């Protein structure tokens, strides 16, 4: 039985799909099952043997989890070197050595190259699980050496029902809006609700609109924003720019991501050219990638740059050309 599992398990598995689809939960269930002394039907761990208990506690000697270190945005080549030494030793307790890497797309180029060497000659009885929400950002050489599993977004009806059951009634939030704003993954949408991202977003958007009306100082806004994580605001900026391009092309308000502020966007769109909106969208997306990918990025400059671009969209100077 055990030898059959060893033969059947792929060396590397890639779990891909939008954030919030349960990829990490799937990976930890799989890793637990591989360490379990009494695997259950359906491929689950028993939950009570010492292998299961150590995995649940995150302290199983045969498992290694690689993520960006605290305060860092990327998985470094040093971490992959540590992985190499980890894999050089035989499994101490379970049949398999297991590795989880997420977000796999955050490996530096050097890290990805080192991992590739491991994937090219995988040690026996080892299962690497790579998790990514940005499949195409992973080098094709890595992707092609993994068995790939895609977590497709749920049909929105199913996702709405799932989310509705988990939202406490006191939150008074519309599941559809949450799903739209968080990019479609139900777990991510739930996180949005629980971490109060929506009121952060509301403040941020209000500030953006005040900025466009000349009622708020740009540097005041930057100062306030820097107290929080920048990933979400940069994402919101790119969805706003996308929505304004839709409005500029005559798309109905009900197809917008930010439907709740459709009227404010409609007013602003009249003051912006296609060209300016395209530039804004490109810059927001690009800044978000930069912010995600770099260790020593200057958040203040990044934010100032995008807000200046936002202001330029609505400034008077290009009116005569529209
Ligand atoms: Zn068990």
From TrEMBL:
<feature type="domain" description="DNA polymerase III delta subunit C-terminal">
    <location>
        <begin position="195"/>
        <end position="310"/>
    </location>
</feature>
<dbReference type="InterPro" id="IPR050238">
    <property type="entry name" value="DNA_Rep/Repair_Clamp_Loader"/>
</dbReference>
<dbReference type="GO" id="GO:0003677">
    <property type="term" value="F:DNA binding"/>
</dbReference>
<keyword id="KW-0235">DNA replication</keyword>
<dbReference type="GO" id="GO:0006261">
    <property type="term" value="P:DNA-templated DNA replication"/>
</dbReference>
<dbReference type="GO" id="GO:0009360">
    <property type="term" value="C:DNA polymerase III complex"/>
</dbReference>
<keyword id="KW-0239">DNA-directed DNA polymerase</keyword>
<dbReference type="InterPro" id="IPR008921">
    <property type="entry name" value="DNA_pol3_clamp-load_cplx_C"/>
</dbReference>
<dbReference type="GO" id="GO:0003887">
    <property type="term" value="F:DNA-directed DNA polymerase activity"/>
</dbReference>
<keyword id="KW-0548">Nucleotidyltransferase</keyword>
<keyword id="KW-0808">Transferase</keyword>
<dbReference type="Pfam" id="PF13177">
    <property type="entry name" value="DNA_pol3_delta2"/>
</dbReference>
<dbReference type="InterPro" id="IPR015199">
    <property type="entry name" value="DNA_pol_III_delta_C"/>
</dbReference>
<dbReference type="InterPro" id="IPR027417">
    <property type="entry name" value="P-loop_NTPase"/>
</dbReference>
<dbReference type="Pfam" id="PF09115">
    <property type="entry name" value="DNApol3-delta_C"/>
</dbReference>
<protein>
    <recommendedName>
        <fullName>DNA polymerase III subunit delta'</fullName>
        <ecNumber>2.7.7.7</ecNumber>
    </recommendedName>
</protein>
